[in-house]
Every structure is written in C-alpha cells, then in structure tokens.
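I have been asked to look over a protein record a colleague put together. Alongside the sequence sits a line of tokens, each denoting a local backbone shape. Please read both lines and tell me whether the tokens look consistent with the sequence. Take the sequence as given and treat only the tokens as open to question. I have pasted the whole thing underneath without changing anything:
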Amino acid sequence: MWTPDRLLLLRLGRSGQAKEARDLCELVRRGNGIEELNRRREIR
C-alpha cells in the first residue's frame, strides 16, 4: 500500500538523496518518519 509518506520517500530517492530517503524509510518503519521529515525540512 502506498501511503503519502512512502511516495514522498520515493521522490526523495529519485532526486539523488537516496541515502537520506533510506534513513527516513527506516524512521517511518519505527513510526516517527513524518516528524523527522518535518524537522529536516525546517533545518534547511
């Protein structure tokens, strides 16, 4: 099943941030991927 966060991770991977996408994918599996993604977006 494609959840919005998974689609977002897929886009991140395609844009050359594959390692970051994999890290975020791991975080999503633990259940805090969206919070981490928002945190990283605020930093940039």
In short: Residues 18-30 form the longest helix (13 residues). Residues 4-43 form one domain. Residues 36 and 42 are 10 Å apart (CA to CA).
